């Protein structure tokens, strides 16, 4: 393989949005047949760069050179014709359409002035065979799960024989096995000569699959290294521009009485016979693979979805049925999907932070705006919100600070048990540590913490006790020696502890 | 390629029930004449409802179709009275339809307005302009040879029925077998993604409005020649008939869902209702109430997930209070 | 300062209103007389009432096409209740209750079956109008004279409608701005799932908005019937269009979450003033409809333009 041939080069790309300079002279190079990681915290400019390469945005200045030729007025269609396929983070699928059709939107095959569905079906079948996946081509997309949707995205890129494949957090919603399968496919593509730009927040994946690592910060490229020469520290420090304090002060906390007691919770085909307890001052992490049914259990406890049988008690009292009553009992939940479930992006952080607290903040239903402002001010200070004001719209904060707003919303209800579902998903390294410290502080105040996390490193760092779920059941529990292999072993094989 | 089989199934069940009751209560309903009458009634609605389907597919809506119908009917009437040959009359009516459809599409997409708001404004503009231009006069006394289009028969079947079948076949082909048609679905289902796939979203939406306009224009020619004249308030409230037909037929108002067979069955149900009620012996005054009830029941039945409902009643623990 | 003001939708509406008043007073000498304007408040109050209900529903991210039909249904019910000898006051109360019930039907079906409000209220629009036609036989029903006061009387110097609508607006404003109801509806309109996860009773709050919309439509039906002295099933035709125009012109976004109640009120005044002014100036109604259509499109396009400029600057 000719290692010196570049399939993609960008030359001094500049881009700004209304006075905000997002890219400041990017020189990016992609070799033929390599997998290159593109890293950076949220707002570093990664998304803007790949959107320019794939023609979704146009640069203010600079050149994009694909296959040695300078492109002019690149559009998504032109980029595709040049062999650039992009798998975007936000799924770009068509929920109302069939799997087959999803693969071919924008590049349907024609014969005799009409669409050649038969030929498209053949190609689709071949593509899925190549992926080693069985899928009903005529299933409506909306009926498929997140992982299948991701596979369809990949198949979509494959079916057009891409020379350059851009993958933006492709494993975010995949389980361990599915991730492995995806990696096999990616490696195979690489062998076939496809060049891949791989974007991910998961450090271990970067070291597992990529050949080179490029780190971006503040719209500039900080450095590019061979993956084998790069260290985690170099990567995180370049991303943040400063050393990360990875120390967590996990003082010995006294755990108190049982707060939450779940016994034999069952919902047909989703989860079976789930029993566990959470004590005051304790951080319990519910570990396992994506799709093990953890989120579903949390939703059932929080009154979002009904369940079939079982008993949940909180401080000895049976838990109420509706979410608003559960909150009054002292249980709150920070959901997985911040943008869709956590906060209202269009209203101010201040309004978000009082949204759930009206039952205690208002008098006979009338708002007490003075008291509201006071509580919001306390949260802004206590949570180290950045920028330190709650007046901006929720959506204008960074991922980590949006998460703080959501946590602030719940702290205003003064909860005794906090459920956090993947609390640091899509949060950059620096903000992650702040959230961990916050969680530990809350536990020190005597609150119970129940976390759903698929991030093993995170689990090891903050958990007092780990419960592992597998295929809708509890596979085991760890109270000490949180070894990665022990957790993974239970998550995958279900060895009883 | 995915079809809302639920809507079609539900509609077919409706038809079976209605026909079964008719068989017992009013066997005279089953006459060739009556069948032809119903088909003739449905033809204009079905043709235009297929146009509305296109607009709904791309995720828009056009509430100005009633005014477009009036404008096209007037065009048909004026051209016919001027002694133009049939083909010119139809072409003229379709031309007016396509122009107004294009105007709708461009205003919605270029000014980035909610389709319902924009076409609402355009509805009153078109109606106002039309009456200012025609001075509100009714058009009567069209030449006999032109009336053949709406009133004639070939092999015992009304000519509009042939036109309707032709339009349905063409629309089926366009929506399933051509790039344009599938683009309607893609744009309605996920506009941002469609743009990234290289589809010109704005153009696709404008085309959908234009197709709607042209089909309304065709329907207008049939409408005018069938009744031999038009009043100044022609097509008032017609947008609701078309939207109802499409929605009862399983089209979604948020885009990306709906097909020709469903819309045809929906249009048939909505427009045959009057005839059915007469046979039931129900006062025509109640027609609108029954129509509303049917739209209500049918869309509600598509929405209810019966399997889920059943499981909710079976399991005990769900209601854990 | 000027830049800031032009970004304010409400300020723009006031400017439009001033222009409309200026133009209209030039067209007709009667227009700016106190007596004329006081009489105009009857129409303004009625029109703004239906816009208020629509604004509430749009705030939740829905739409209510059934308001015009509900107005007719309540009108016909009022007539029939009086006809069968129910005391006038009770007849009015029952008619208003029917409006609330109809709204409840809309709200529950939208929430429980998760259907688009456009479709549900399209169906009930046909349904309510159909029932009104069916039960009234399509003919006008006279109402007792003691009800005329509600549509034609004055309280002090002010027309009854003005007093009623002002009270309604004040009550709604208090509920929206001083209680949690407003924030709840806004959150639901912007992002219903977040509202669910925040423990907000989504169904309950949404149904309240639809109930209010139905109630206000019924109230309009009663006031209107009392003003014209008889009940009929064809009242309120196309009023849903007026209501949407008012809400959107006033600054509402059909996507939900963003509305302006004060804006809607000014929008109602503008629209009624244009209609009245043009009528007084003997300009045919068709020209009026062209002008109102144009104003709607231009106003919304302008709103969008202002909004897009705002986001760029942020």
UniProtKB/TrEMBL annotation, chain A:
Localization per Swiss-Prot or TrEMBL: Cell inner membrane
Chief location bin: membrane
Record flagged with keyword Nucleotide-binding: yes
GO molecular function, one term: ATP binding
Keywords: ATP-binding, Nucleotide-binding
Pfam families: ABC_tran
Residues annotated as transmembrane: none
Coiled-coil features, chain-numbered ranges: none
Catalytic activity field: ATP + H2O + (2R,4S)-2-methyl-2,3,3,4-tetrahydroxytetrahydrofuran-[AI-2-binding protein]Side 1 = ADP + phosphate + (2R,4S)-2-methyl-2,3,3,4-tetrahydroxytetrahydrofuranSide 2 + [AI-2-binding protein]Side 1
Quaternary structure note: The complex is composed of two ATP-binding proteins (LsrA), two transmembrane proteins (LsrC and LsrD) and a solute-binding protein (LsrB).
General function of this protein: Part of the ABC transporter complex LsrABCD involved in autoinducer 2 (AI-2) import. Responsible for energy coupling to the transport system.
Family of this protein: Belongs to the ABC transporter superfamily. AI-2 autoinducer porter (TC 3.A.1.2.8) family.
Protein name per Swiss-Prot or TrEMBL: Autoinducer 2 import ATP-binding protein LsrA
Species of provenance: Blautia intestinalis
TrEMBL record, chain B:
Major subcellular site: membrane
Record's bilayer topology term: Multi-pass membrane protein
Keywords per UniProt: Cell inner membrane, Cell membrane, Membrane, Transmembrane, Transmembrane helix, Transport
CDD domains to which the protein is assigned, alphabetical: TM_PBP1_transp_AraH_like
Domain of life the protein comes from: Bacteria
TM ranges: 12-32, 38-58, 86-108, 115-134, 154-175, 206-225, 263-282, 288-306
Subunit structure: The complex is composed of two ATP-binding proteins (LsrA), two transmembrane proteins (LsrC and LsrD) and a solute-binding protein (LsrB).
Function: Part of the ABC transporter complex LsrABCD involved in autoinducer 2 (AI-2) import. Probably responsible for the translocation of the substrate across the membrane.
Protein name: Autoinducer 2 import system permease protein LsrC
Species of provenance: Blautia intestinalis
Highest classification ranks of the organism: Bacteria, Bacillati, Bacillota, Clostridia, Lachnospirales
UniProtKB/TrEMBL annotation, chain C:
Taxonomic superkingdom: Bacteria
Main location: membrane
Key word Transport present: yes
Membrane-spanning residues: 49-82, 89-109, 115-143, 155-177, 207-226, 262-283, 290-307
Keyword terms of this UniProt record: Cell inner membrane, Cell membrane, Membrane, Transmembrane, Transmembrane helix, Transport
Membrane topology (UniProt): Multi-pass membrane protein
Keyword match tRNA processing: no
Compartment(s) where it occurs, according to its Swiss-Prot or TrEMBL record: Cell membrane
Pfam families xrefs: BPD_transp_2
Record-given protein name: Autoinducer 2 import system permease protein LsrD
Organism, as annotated: Blautia intestinalis
């Amino acid at each position: 393989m000719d290692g010196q041939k570049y399939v993609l080069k960008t030359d001094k790309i500049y881009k700004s949005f209304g006075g905000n300079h997002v890219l400041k002279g990017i020189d990016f190079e992609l070799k033929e047949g390599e997998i290159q990681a593109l890293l950076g915290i949220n707002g570093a400019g990664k998304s803007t760069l790949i959107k320019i390469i794939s023609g979704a945005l146009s640069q203010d200045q600079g050149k994009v050179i694909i296959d040695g030729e300078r492109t002019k007025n690149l559009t998504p269609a032109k980029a595709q014709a040049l062999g650039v396929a992009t798998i975007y983070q936000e799924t770009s699928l068509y929920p109302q359409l069939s799997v087959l059709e999803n693969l071919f939107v924008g590049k349907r095959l024609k014969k005799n002035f009409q669409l050649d569905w038969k030929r498209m079906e053949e190609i689709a079948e071949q593509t899925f065979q190549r992926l080693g996946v069985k899928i009903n081509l005529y299933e409506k997309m909306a009926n498929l799960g997140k992982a299948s949707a991701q596979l369809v995205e990949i198949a979509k890129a494959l079916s057009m024989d891409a020379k350059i494949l851009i993958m933006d957090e492709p494993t975010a919603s995949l389980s361990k096995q599915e991730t492995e399968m995806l990696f096999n496919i990616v490696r195979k593509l690489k062998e076939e000569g496809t060049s891949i730009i791989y974007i991910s927040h998961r450090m271990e994946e970067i070291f597992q699959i990529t050949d080179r690592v490029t780190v971006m910060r503040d719209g500039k490229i900080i450095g590019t290294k061979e993956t084998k020469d790069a260290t985690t520290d170099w990567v995180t420090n370049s991303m943040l521009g400063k050393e990360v304090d990875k120390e967590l002060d996990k003082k010995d906390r006294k755990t108190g009485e049982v707060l939450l007691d779940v016994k034999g919770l069952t919902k047909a085909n989703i989860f079976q016979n789930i029993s566990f307890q959470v004590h005051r001052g304790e951080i319990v992490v519910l570990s396992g693979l994506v799709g093990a049914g953890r989120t579903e259990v949390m939703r059932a406890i929080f009154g979002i979805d009904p369940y079939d049988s079982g008993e949940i008690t909180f401080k000895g009292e049976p838990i109420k049925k509706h979410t608003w009553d559960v909150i009054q009992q002292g249980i709150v939940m920070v959901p997985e999907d911040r943008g869709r479930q956590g906060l209202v992006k269009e209203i101010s952080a201040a309004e978000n932070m009082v949204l759930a607290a009206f039952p205690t903040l208002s008098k006979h239903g009338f708002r007490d705006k003075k008291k509201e402002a006071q509580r919001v001010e306390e949260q802004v200070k206590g949570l180290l919100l950045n920028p330190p004001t709650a007046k901006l719209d929720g959506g204008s904060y960074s991922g980590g600070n949006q998460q703080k707003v959501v946590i602030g919303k719940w702290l205003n209800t003064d909860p005794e048990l906090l459920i956090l579902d993947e609390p640091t998903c899509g949060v950059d390294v620096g903000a992650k540590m702040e959230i961990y410290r916050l969680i530990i502080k809350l536990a020190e105040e005597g609150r119970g913490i129940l976390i759903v996390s698929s991030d093993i490193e995170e689990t090891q760092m903050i958990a007092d006790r780990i419960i592992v779920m597998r295929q809708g059941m509890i596979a085991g529990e760890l109270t000490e020696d949180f070894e990665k292999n022990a957790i993974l072993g239970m998550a995958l094989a279900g060895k009883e502890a | 390629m995915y079809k809302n089989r639920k809507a079609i199934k539900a509609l077919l069940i409706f038809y079976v029930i209605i026909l079964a009751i008719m068989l017992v209560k009013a066997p005279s309903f089953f006459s060739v004449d009556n069948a032809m009458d119903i088909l003739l009634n449905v033809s204009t609605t079905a043709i235009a409802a297929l146009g509305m389907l296109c607009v709904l597919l791309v995720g828009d809506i056009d509430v100005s179709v009633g005014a477009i119908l009036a404008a096209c009917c007037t065009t048909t009437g004026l051209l016919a009275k001027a002694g133009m040959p049939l083909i010119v009359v139809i072409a003229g009516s379709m031309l007016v339809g396509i122009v107004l459809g294009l105007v709708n599409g461009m205003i919605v997409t270029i000014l980035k307005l909610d389709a319902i708001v924009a076409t609402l404004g355009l509805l009153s503009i078109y109606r106002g302009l039309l009456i200012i231009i025609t001075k509100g006069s009714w058009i009567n006394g069209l030449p006999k040879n032109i009336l053949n289009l709406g009133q004639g028969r070939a092999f015992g079947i009304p000519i509009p029925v042939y036109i309707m079948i032709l339009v349905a076949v063409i629309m089926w082909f366009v929506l399933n077998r051509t790039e344009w048609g599938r683009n309607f679905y893609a744009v309605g289902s996920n506009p941002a993604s469609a743009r990234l796939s290289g589809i010109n979203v704005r153009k696709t939406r404008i085309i959908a409005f234009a197709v709607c306009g042209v089909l309304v224009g065709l329907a207008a020619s049939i409408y005018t020649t069938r009744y031999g004249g038009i009043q100044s308030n022609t097509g008032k409230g017609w947008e609701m008939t078309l939207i109802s037909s499409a929605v009862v037929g399983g089209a979604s108002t948020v885009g990306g869902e709906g097909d020709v067979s469903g819309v045809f069955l929906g249009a048939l149900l909505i427009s045959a209702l009057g005839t059915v009620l007469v046979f039931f012996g129900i006062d025509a005054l109640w027609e609108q109430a029954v129509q509303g009830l049917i739209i209500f029941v049918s869309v509600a039945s598509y929405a209810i997930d019966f399997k889920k409902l059943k499981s909710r009643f079976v399991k005990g623990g769900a209601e854990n209070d | 300062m000027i830049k800031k003001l032009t970004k304010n939708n409400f300020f723009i509406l006031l400017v439009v209103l001033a222009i409309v008043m200026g133009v209209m007073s030039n067209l007709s000498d009667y227009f700016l007389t106190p007596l004329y304007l006081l009489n105009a408040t009857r129409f303004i109050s009625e029109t703004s009432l239906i816009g208020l209900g629509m604004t509430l529903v749009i705030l939740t991210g829905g739409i209510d096409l059934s308001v015009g039909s509900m107005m007719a249904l309540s009108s016909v019910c009022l007539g029939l209740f009086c006809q069968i000898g129910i005391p006038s006051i009770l007849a009015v109360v029952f008619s208003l209750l029917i409006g609330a019930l109809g709204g409840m039907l809309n709200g529950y079906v939208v929430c429980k079956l998760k259907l688009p409000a456009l479709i549900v209220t399209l169906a009930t629009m046909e349904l309510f109008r159909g029932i009104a036609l069916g039960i009234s036989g399509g003919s006008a029903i006279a109402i007792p004279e003691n009800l005329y006061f509600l549509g034609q009387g004055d309280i002090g110097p002010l027309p009854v409608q003005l007093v009623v609508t002002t009270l309604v607006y004040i009550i709604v404003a208090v509920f929206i701005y001083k209680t949690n109801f407003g924030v709840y509806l806004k959150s639901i309109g912007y992002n219903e799932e977040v509202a669910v996860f925040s423990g907000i009773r989504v169904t309950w709050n949404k149904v309240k908005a639809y109930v209010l919309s139905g109630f206000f439509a019924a109230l309009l039906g009663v006031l209107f019937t009392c003003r014209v002295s008889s009940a009929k099933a064809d009242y309120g035709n196309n009023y849903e269009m007026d209501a949407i125009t008012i809400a959107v012109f006033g600054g509402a976004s059909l996507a939900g979450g963003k509305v302006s109640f004060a804006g809607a009120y000014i929008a109602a005044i503008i629209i009624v003033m244009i209609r009245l002014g043009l009528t007084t100036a003997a300009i045919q109604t068709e020209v009026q409809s062209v002008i109102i259509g144009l104003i709607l499109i231009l106003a919304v396009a302008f709103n969008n333009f202002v909004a897009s400029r705002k986001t760029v600057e942020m």
